[in-house]
Amino acid sequence: MNERVPMVELVHEMRNELAIARANLEGLVDGKFAPTKERLLAIIQALGQLEALVEDMRVRDVAVDMPARPSLLDVCALLDREYRSIEPIARARGVSVSIHQCPVPLGECVHFYGDAARIGQIVKNVLINAVRYTPRGGTISVDCTHDADQLEIRVADTGPGLADGESAQIFEPGFRGEASRGTAGSGYGLSVAKHLVEEQGGTIEAAAASPHGAVFTVRLPGRAGAMNHLCSECRLPHAHR
C-alpha cells in the first residue's frame, strides 16, 4: 500500500545512506578496506538509494502516493552490496558480521522482481538497528534463504534483546524500548522497514533470541511460481571479514 511518507522518516533514511557512504569512503582512505570493485559498487548503491530518497522528498508535497519502482534485478548481488556497505560501521563499533548465502545464486534470484532501492532500505535499516544495539565484541548473523515463492532474510544479533510485549511495538514510529536507554537513535528505522516490506507484499517479524539478543525476519515475495525450492547450500558460511 502506497501512502505519504513522513518527512522525519525520509530524513532518517537519508542520514543512513550518508553515514554508510562516508564510513566506506573513510575506510578506503585509511587503508582499512581495499578499493575492490564490490566495495565501490556498494558505495554507488548507497548513493543511488540516497538519490531515490531525494526524489521521494521532491515529490512528497505534490503527490500523495510515492509508488514503488519494481523491476527485474539480481537480488543476491544487491544484498551482498548492502552487507558490504554496513561492514565499516560494524567494524568501528567492534561488532562482527557473518553472512550466510548461497555459494551460487539461483536463477530466480538473479531475476528477482522487486524495488531495488526499497529492498536495500529494508535490509539496511534492520542491519543498522542490529549494529546499534549489539555491544562491542558481539556478533550479527545474516542468513538468506529461498523457499517456494518467498525470499527470507534473517538477522540475529547478540544485543540486549526485546522485553516482553515489545515484539510488535518495536515497529511503531518513534518507539524506543528498554534496550534503547543510552543508545542513539530516532526510533523510526524499523517502522520504515515495516512500511516498505508491507508495501511490497511481504512481512517482517521480531523475536527475542536465546539466551539473549533479537532476531528479525524479513520475508519478501518473489515472482509467482519462480522460487519453488529451497537451496540446499544456503546455509554454507560466506563471512565478510
Condensed summary:
By secondary structure, the protein is α+β, with helices and mostly antiparallel strands.
How would you name the CATH homologous superfamily of the domain at 68-221? Histidine kinase-like ATPase, C-terminal domain
Radius of gyration: 17 Å
The biggest sheet amounts to: 5 strands, mixed
The overall pLDDT average reads 76
Order of helices and strands: HHEHEHEHEEHHEE
**What is the CATH-assigned architecture of the domain at 68-221?**
2-Layer Sandwich
CATH class of the domain at 68-221: Alpha Beta
Q: Using DSSP, what is the number of strands?
A: 7
With helices defined by DSSP (H or I, 4 residues minimum), what is the helix count? 7
Write up what this structure looks like:
By secondary structure, the protein is an alpha+beta fold. The protein has a domain at 68-221: Heat Shock Protein 90, CATH 3.30.565.10. The protein is built from seven helices and seven strands, in the order H-H-E-H-E-H-E-H-E-E-H-H-E-E. The chain has helices at residues 7-29, 37-60, 75-92, 107-110, 116-133, 166-169, 189-199; strands at 71-73, 96-100, 112-114, 139-147, 150-157, 203-208, 214-221. The strands form two sheets. Strands 2-4-5-7-6 form a five-stranded mixed beta sheet. Helix 1 (7-29) packs antiparallel against helix 2. It is globular and about 45 Å long.
